[in-house]
Amino acid sequence: MSDSDFEGFGNTAKTLSRSPLGIIALFIVLIYGFAALTLGISAKNLSANLQVPLVWFLVLFPVVVLAVFAYLVTRHHQKLYGPMDFSDQALFLELQQELREIKSEVEPVIERQIEHEPSNDMTLRLHVTDDIEEQLLKTLARGNYTFRTTRGLAKEIKLPTEKVQTHLESLFFRKLIGRKLLKNGLWNLAQVKF
Question: 153 with 132: CB under 8 angstroms?
Answer without folding.
Answer: no
